[in-house]
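Quick one, tokens below. Sequence please?
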């Protein structure tokens, strides 16, 4: 009777566990309906955690039932092994053993039935798990379909916004580059004036370089003449020494000595005149060199002024770009602008970028020419 009570109690507990599992499944379905309106990430996390929890509960329940089955079998065999079969026992003991055997047989049948019921419950749990998986997949499929539709709507909206913004930008560009724009007209005028100024400065530098080359050639020729005069002075000195020797030889003849002294004085006087004229020419040449240096310094100052003007023009260009960008931001906030203004903005921005690039190229070329002219002036000295 104790074994029957034990089996009945364990079977009642198993039925209660099955009811709890079914009740939990109903709560899970309610949770799924509640989570249908949640974000996809939360739904995925919830599904993963619930599937893990269900698998763990199923494994624990199956293990408990298996352990309970083996425990009951051990008790049954233990109880069966304690029955005495001695022949010298009385008839009452034999009848008690027979009743116990019948009890054990009924218990064994009960256990087999309970095992069969447990197997059926396990199969039911598997079927419920499969059904829940199908429901979860259908819910996930619906969520993914909703998400894909939402993403397609967002993509269509983005395409519409891109087309609208491109039209707006085109209008702003066209307006910025229109000849009617006073800022752009002023920029073109300043650029033309700066270009003319740079051309004039290049011509002045070229003429100054030519003049420096001519002065350099004159200075070289003067240096050659000075060397020749020095050579003549050396020759005159050597001739004076020779004449002195001759004077020592013919010192007894006053007339010859007077003639030689007169010739030497004449040579010295001619040499002094030539030296004075050469010094005068050298002084004039150095004065011209100083004048050219002053002129080159003025040209460098003019170049610096032109460079500053180019920098100022670049700042104005950046300011114009800022104005255009400000117009772009203003126009991007007001989507309902006129289509013609949008097209004009895009054209103006494109032309502004091209003009800025051309201006940078022009500036780099001018700076390179200025550096070459400065190097040419320095090398000429």
């Amino acid at each position: 009777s104790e074994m029957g009570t034990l089996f009945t109690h364990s079977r009642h507990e198993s039925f209660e566990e099955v009811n709890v599992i079914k009740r939990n499944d109903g709560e899970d379905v309610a949770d799924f309906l509640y989570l249908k309106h949640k974000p996809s990430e939360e739904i995925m996390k919830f599904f993963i955690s619930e599937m893990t929890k269900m698998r763990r509960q199923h494994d624990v329940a199956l293990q408990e039932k298996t352990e309970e089955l083996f425990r009951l079998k051990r008790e049954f065999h233990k109880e069966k092994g304690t029955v005495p079969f001695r022949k010298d026992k009385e008839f009452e003991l034999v009848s008690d053993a027979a009743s116990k055997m019948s009890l054990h047989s009924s218990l064994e049948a009960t256990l087999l039935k309970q095992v069969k019921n447990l197997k059926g419950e396990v199969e039911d749990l598997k079927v419920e798990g499969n059904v829940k998986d199908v429901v979860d997949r259908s819910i996930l499929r619906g969520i993914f379909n909703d998400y894909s539709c939402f993403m397609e709507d967002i993509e269509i909206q983005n395409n519409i916004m891109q087309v609208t913004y491109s039209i707006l930008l085109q209008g702003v560009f066209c307006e910025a580059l229109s000849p009617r724009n006073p800022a752009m007209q002023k920029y073109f005028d300043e650029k033309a004036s700066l270009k003319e100024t740079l051309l004039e400065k290049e011509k002045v530098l070229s003429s100054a370089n030519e003049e420096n080359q001519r002065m350099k050639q004159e200075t070289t020729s003067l240096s050659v003449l000075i060397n020749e005069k020095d050579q003549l002075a050396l020759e005159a000195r050597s001739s004076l020494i020779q004449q002195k020797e001759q004077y020592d030889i013919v010192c007894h003849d006053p007339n010859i000595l007077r003639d030689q002294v007169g010739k030497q004085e004449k040579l010295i006087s001619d040499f002094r005149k030539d030296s004075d004229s050469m010094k005068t020419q050298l002084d004039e040449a150095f004065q011209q060199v100083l004048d050219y240096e002053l002129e080159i310094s003025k040209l460098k100052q003019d170049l610096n002024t032109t460079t500053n003007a180019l920098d100022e023009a670049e700042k104005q260009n950046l300011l114009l770009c800022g104005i255009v960008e400000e117009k772009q931001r203003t126009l991007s906030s007001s989507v309902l602008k006129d289509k013609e203004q949008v097209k004009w903005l895009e054209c103006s921005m494109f032309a502004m970028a091209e003009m800025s690039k051309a201006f940078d190229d022009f500036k780099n070329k001018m700076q390179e020419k200025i550096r070459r002219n400065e190097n040419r002036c320095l090398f000429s000295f």
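The chain has a mean pLDDT of 67. The chain has two domains: 2-165, 177-380.
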